[in-house]
Amino acid sequence: MLRILAGGLAVILATIAASAVIIARVPGAMVPEHNASRTWLIEHATLFDPETGTRQAGRSVLVQDGRIARIGPDGMSGIDPDIPRIDAQGRTLMPGLIDMHVHVFDEVDLAAGLAVGVTTVRNMGGMPFHLPLARRIDAGRLYGPRLITTGAIINERGGRNANLLHELVMGGDEARAAVRRQHAAGFRHLKLYSNLSRESFAAIREEAAALGMTMSGHPVEGTEDDPLPFTDTLPAGFDTIEHTESIVWHGLSDNTDPDGARALAQTIAAAGATVDPTLVVHENLARIVETRGGHLLRPEMEGYNPVVAGFERDTFDFWSRYVHEDRTQMQAFYEAFTGMMHEAGVRLTVGSDSGIMASPHGVSTVREIELLVRAGLTPLEAIRSATVHPADVLGLEGKVGCVAVGCFADLVLVDGDPLTSPSILYTPRGVMRDGRWLDRDALDALEEAGRRPSELRTWWRLGRHLLAIG
Question: Averaged over 185-195, what is the pLDDT?
Answer without folding.
Answer: 97
